[in-house]
Amino acid sequence: MATTRSMKTTATTKKTTKTDKDASNLAEEKKTGHGDDHNKTNGVAKAPIDEPSEEEEAMTMSHYISVFHILLMNGFLCHNRQYWRSDPVVSIVLLILYVTCGTFIPLLWPKTRSTTSTATIAGAPPPLPIVTCVRNVLFLLHCVWLIKLSLAGQPSGANHKNMLCMVSLILLPAQVRQCYHDFYGGSAARQMQVMADSLNLVRWAVFIMYFMAGFHKINDDFLFEPTVSCAFDKIYYYIELFGYEDLNDLPWWFKQLPWTVLFVEIVPALTLLVPKWQWQIPSVANFILLHLILLPMGFADFGSIAQSFLLLFVSPTAVANSGLTLNFFLSMVSMFIIFQTCTLVHWYLWQEDEVVPFEEGEMGLVLMAYGLMWGSLLPAAPKANEGVPVWRPKTAFGWVPLVFFLWWAMNPYLGLRTAGNLTMFSNLTTEGKTSNHLLLRNNPLKIFGYQDDQVEIVELEEPLGRKVKEGAILTRINFDVALQSNVENYLPEELKGTPITIRYKGETLETEDLFNDPAFAQFLEPRAWWEKKFFNMRPIHNYDDGPKECSW
User: Fold this and answer.
1) Which one-letter DSSP state was computed for residue 470?
2) Greater confidence, 355 or 198?
3) What totals of helices (H) and strands (E) does the chain contain, helices first?
4) Nearest 5°: CA angle at 12, between 11 and 14?
5) Which DSSP symbol is given to 521?
6) Could you give the CA distance from residue 451 to residue 536 in angstroms, rounded to a whole number?
7) Are 94 and 145 spatial neighbours (Cβ–Cβ below 8 Å)?
8) Residue-wise pLDDT tens digits, 198-225
9) pLDDT at residue 50, rounded to an integer
10) 86: helix, coil or strand?
11) Full-model pTM
12) What angle do CA 507, 512, 517 make, to 5 degrees?
């Protein structure tokens, strides 16, 4: 098996030497008189600037990609700890192999210890080519595993899990190509450009995530209804710190919180696209603070995932010069592996309920680990004095995932699914002829009728699922899928005698035996598999009962 050829670089700063010039260049310099001034500014001699070689740039980029992979895998592990039966076990195994392969491969195959490369990143020797190859394969397997779990869990996937799935789909082709390159060789420069293009697409996806999360909040209930606004609902834990117990007692500046949330999500998302560290680093710091505020509310998993996304707006040079070696990140992830393993063992042996233990401990670990990380990365960015360019995709293939993700985020306004597409805690309502969104009040983009085909549950003794309960208004497709799920999961005799009264298309339908009454047969006809997988709709709010309450 062929492995990637090792890249030869030098561990010390290169000493600049004066190169021989062509006779034509010398003659031109004599004519113009610029030959002696080319290293001077205002008569003061400038020190020659050492440009990094292609091999050094490749090593820096490789280190950057490895750090991103580690943080992304660790973020998914933090998410999976909530699903202890199998999901986190695979994540833990992949991470353990990723962390330890750099130690055990040289022990198992001593010949791999020798390497001609002397390059360093942040003072540490580069990983051996075979180790890099194995880690690339492990990250590829992680992407496949993540996509599989995300698709299997649809349509009820969490927003950040859907985001992870989108990112994995973007990275998958480049990662397959990277593994092929590791085994069979090829142009290293071309492969590095492919990886750079895939990370650029992820940056665009991160921009869409933050921007659309803010865009969904431009609505009446979020901005003008403090009693139900998710801005106050999520920040209520902090209000007591200011000595207030009631929203009505808050000073005027605190009541502008919804507008502040709007600003900190939309404006920094836009400035992330400006390729200067003076714009990008404050935006990164802004989002770090946002996730820090949300951390005590149970968002340790989303906060951990976001760290990998935000890293992509810190330049590779800044990461390499931050003083944080790859071993730092591997050690950091090792702490998470040990903690999550102990959590799962404790839960399996002694926990009787479904609440994940040690939630406060996880928050403390996230705060400590990522606090140390950003404490070194953020100061390194000004020293590197370079931003991260975000360019338009160069091919139609690059545009496809971004257009799809934007379409996904715009689903509520198109009349499609209303949950799991960055609408979390936004108070957004698009059902009916009008929306509560200030810019899209009359639903001008709605071209599908799924949201407006509604069923109202007038009477129902026992709920038939999380959404099908008395007093609820839900879409027809949610109602159908819930009834069909009951048919699939219960014996016919268990479903006999289920009384229900509903209101559908202006008519009231009533029965004492829901699953056997011909009048309700239309609701029991099997839905297409793609409808079951795609549509995740929120219960519809009746504004006769007041403003829309905050919900996930």
Assistant:
1) T
2) 198
3) 18, 6
4) 120
5) G
6) 11
7) yes
8) 999 999 999 999 999 999 999 999 999 8
9) 57
10) coil
11) 0.85
12) 70
